[in-house]
Amino acid sequence: KMDDDDDDIPQLSSHTLAALQEFYLEQQQREGMKTSQGFNQYSIGSIEEDWQLSQFWYSDETASCLANEAVLAAGKGGRIACVSAPSVYQKLKEQDGKDFSVCILEYDRRFSVYGEEFIFYDYNHPLSLPENLQPHSFDIVIADPPYLSEECLKKTAETIKYLTKGKILLCTGAIMEEQAAKHLGVKICKFIPKHSRNLANEFRCYVNYASGLD
Fold it and tell me: Which reactions is this enzyme annotated as catalysing (predicted)?
């Protein structure tokens, strides 16, 4: 009779069960990483993507390449601002550099764990920034607007132009090339940025200075 009762228990398909097991395994691995001594709070993935906020982290190689480019462009003792580009910020912090300083402007308040370098930022209010954030006080601004729309790019451009002394490194869709030139005077680079998860839209980098990305 016990066997008869067991037949009434709903069974997951083997495919669903395998997917569920994979999900839990990944979760355990992530938690294991976070509790191990070697865990770095600045490593990419330490704060997970939130697709509802249109977040897509760069691959490790892309984040490293963009971080290195920013350090070179900023120069010794330079200041770098990352606008909606947290994975580049994380890579810069991993370098533990003493020759530059960096801050992150981000809508996602989870990044407030990074302390005073975190500045809450909503592109809908492009100049709603802390008073201590002086205009034209950053040697380079790296920005990755969260949405592929002219409205989002135009508003983010206001922030970028307020912050930068001149140099701009923009990461956005290939379809935004015309608008990027119009609002920021930037040109497309040969370097192709990659994400940790493949995106449907082709992504590109744009600059307004002689960069190492060509």
Answer: L-lysyl-[protein] + 3 S-adenosyl-L-methionine = N(6),N(6),N(6)-trimethyl-L-lysyl-[protein] + 3 S-adenosyl-L-homocysteine + 3 H(+)
